[in-house]
Amino acid sequence: MASNSILCINDVLTDDELRFILGRVDTDKDKETFGLVCKRWLLLQSTERKKLAARAGPHMLRRMADRFTRLLELDLAQSVSRSFYPGVTDSDLAVIANGFTCLKILNLYNCKGITDAGMKAIGEGLSSLQSLDVSYCRKLTDKGLSAVAKGCCDLRVLHMAGCRSVTDAALEALSKNCSNLEELGLQGCTSITDNGLINLASGCPRIRFLDINKCSNVSDVGVSSISRACSSYLKTLKLLDCYKIGDETILSLAEFCGNLETLIIGGCRDVSADAIKSLATGCGSSLRSLRMDWCRNISDSSLSCVLSQCRNLEALDVSCCEELTDAAFQLISNEEPGLSLKSLMVSCCTKITVAGIGIIMDKCTSLQYLDVRSCPHITKAGLDANFHFPECCKINFNGSISEPVVLL
Fold first, then answer.
1. Which of 72, 152, 322, 333 has the greatest CB tally within 10 Å of its CB?
2. Is the pLDDT score of 17 beyond 80?
């Protein structure tokens, strides 16, 4: 006689089988729903969770560590506009270091309350850490970051923008201990010098992303050492307002960094037009984004060379390059369409007119953003009367349109 008993799924499936099912669930929302079925499923869902964003003190962090035992990514970043006091503290970091031992990614952006003591705990407890963001944690010094470098030898990504107390000593520690480092953000770390970059280059040859925007004490000597040491890896280099940078850096990039995709040299006023031509020739096939606003030596012929050689260029900023004229675009007027430009910024280029913009529109059918602020010869009426812009192209005449983030 057939049995009328009803089997419960929990009696049939093992934990491993339930984990397999959970692994096939795509969205975070559905995974949360999985955990609502029963306590067993909630426990499994918790132990399998890999990423978590939280605002919690030591007591809650301990409870979270007990529940999310396999967590790989923890985001404790504080919003600049809505940060709370005291926020994340060294006590919190001690709990994290002891409780989340599998952690690979830790975001502490703008956690202004943490000090070197918290970094020491991270270095001692999170040996598997691969990515750390301590940007704008202004109490941190070389001591804390050196402790991280010594304890987290597999570190791949480190961002410490705005940590003004960080010096070359931190870069030396990274060079000695973190040979796999790929991404380093040092924006506004004004105590960094060429010696630090030289040390970094000697021990970290795999750097693909380096942001030293506003590091005003670095020069061609340090940056050229990076371009030579990391030649096959370097893809993004940011040098905004590094006023000591000149042709030596640009020529070094042109010679060694054939895979360079993003270069920011805005405010590097000593860079010459000839150096830019060499850059376009050496990195033409790889460059995607180029920002050189306030590089006042840029000429029509150098810009034309960039447009001709860098056929994959998607974002270009030549704002405040006051010597540029329509001739820069006329030199490419006879070429076949096919430029990949999506964003072009020519604000304060007072000699460029509607005619020059018309050439660009003809050659750049994918253009999505055009900045012509403070260009007296380019008006909305003039453009509307002569050209038909696609709806997807936003034109910024007076600053009412947000700039794309691609060149920041």
1. 152
2. no
> Rounded distance, CA 337 to CA 334, Å?
9
Are 175 and 149 within 8 A, CB to CB? no
**What's the longest Cα–Cα distance across the chain?**
95
What's the CATH number of domain 7-48, 1.20.1280, 3.40.30, 3.90.550, 1.10.357? 1.20.1280
The confidence score (pLDDT) of residue 257 equals 98
* CB-based burial label for 3 (10 Å; 0-12, 13-18, 19+): exposed
CATH topology assigned to domain 50-218? 3.80.10
Containing H/E element for 63? helix 58-67
How far is it, in rounded angstroms, from Cα 262 to Cα 290?
A: 6
Residues 270 and 245: their CA atoms lie apart, in Å, by 7
pLDDT reading at 1 higher than 50: no
Local structure of 397: helix, strand or coil: coil
> What pLDDT, on the 0 to 100 scale, is given for residue 5?
67
For 26, the token pair is 């795509």
Identical fold between 7-48 and 50-218 = no
Residues 6+ apart with CB under 8 A from 11: none
User: How many other CB atoms are there within 10 angstroms of residue 20's CB atom?
Assistant: 11
Strand partners, 262: 236, 289
Give the residue among 390, 350, 99 at the shortest CA–CA distance from 370.
390
pLDDT at 336: 65
- What angle separates helix 58-67 from helix 90-99, to the nearest 10 degrees? 10
